[in-house]
Amino acid sequence: MTASGAREIERKYDVPDAAVLPDLTAAVPGLVADAPHTFELAATYLDTADGGLARARTALRRREGGHDAGWHIKADTPQGRFETQWPLDEPVAPGSPNGAAPAAAEAAAGSESDGSTGLGGLPEAEDAVAIPAAIRTELATRLGLADAVFAPIAVLRTTRTIVTLRDTDGNVRVEIADDTVIAHDVSADITRTWREWEAEFLPLPGATANDEAAEAEANALLGAVEARLAQAGAVTASSHSKIARALGR
After folding, report:
1. How far apart are CA 28 and CA 6, in angstroms?
2. At 141, which helix (H) or strand (E)?
3. Number of neighbouring beta carbons within 10 Å of residue 103
4. Torsion-angle region of residue 30: left (phi > 0), alpha (psi -120 to 50) or beta?
5. 15 CB contacts (<8 Å, ≥6 apart)?
6. How many Å apart are CA 236 and CA 10, to the nearest integer?
7. Each residue of 56-80: b (16+ CB within 10 Å) or e?
8. pLDDT in tens, 172-186
9. Lowest mean pLDDT among 38-52, 86-100, 129-143
10. Is the pLDDT of residue 102 over 50?
């Protein structure tokens, strides 16, 4: 299947455990807040044994749950952070370095069907996970990692509450996420927990977040949301990403 990709414009915040996500109904003039909804996410982050992706400021993730479940490559560039996504059922190439059975990938990400909030049954650092052929090709093209073997470096369980802000035409322009995260650093065998808020700008249908106009609009919308979140106790996040925080960076 065809991958989808876009630039991310978002702001992340650390918040106290007792913080309450504020009413965002009038946070941005002209936007209306939807009712919050909560769901569970399970994500496995992967890298090579020598940290080839981390050195390239790139993250590879397989995530279940939510509206964007799938395989994701996130890349930090001078132009911003870009995410490319493939569906969970993207086929694995037989005979590839990570050509394990699909069940291996499912075991790495964990099952959401049993309602468990624990982190039992986590993969060991040396357990390779099956990587879809399209993603292997993408990583080979970008980073020359054609024959690399990828294994889990962190497993995250997140309880996420989402509030979306819509314009008068019904387009979602900002998505605010209230995340409670339990993260297991596979190599160090350390579990870390935290709570964070994220506010992400979403361009209009057919538009992108790649030009100066989008950047200006994003700053205006996210700035208004930030003012409301700050009143509720939010401060700029100490870590730029979940995987960095999961690994103690």
Report:
1. 24
2. helix 133-143
3. 9
4. left
5. 195, 196, 197, 232, 233, 234, 235
6. 12
7. bebbbbbbbbbeebbbbbbbeeeee
8. 999 999 999 999 999
9. 86-100
10. no
Q: Are 1 and 87 contacting, i.e. CB atoms less than 8 angstroms apart?
A: yes
8 Å CB contact between 188 and 181: no
Length of the chain counted residue by residue: 249
Cα dist. 140→101, 127, 129 in Å?
21, 21, 17
pTM of the prediction? 0.85
Q: What is the pLDDT of residue 184?
A: 98
Q: How far apart are CA 59 and CA 244, in angstroms?
A: 10
Q: Which two tokens stand for residue 242?
A: 């979940």
Q: What is the pLDDT of residue 29?
A: 93
> H or E segment at 45?
strand 37-47
Q: How far apart are CA 178 and CA 39, in angstroms?
A: 11
**Interacting residues of 132 by C-beta distance below 8 A, sequence separation 6+:** 71, 86, 90, 91, 92, 93
Query: What phi and psi, each to the nearest 5 degrees, are found at residue 23?
Result: -65, 120
Q: How high is the pLDDT of residue 126?
A: 47
Spatial separation of the C-alpha atoms in residues 246 and 181, rounded to whole Å: 9
Phi-psi region of 232 (alpha: psi -120 to 50; beta: other; left: phi over 0): alpha
Distance CA 119, CA 112 (A): 11
Amino acid in position 234: A
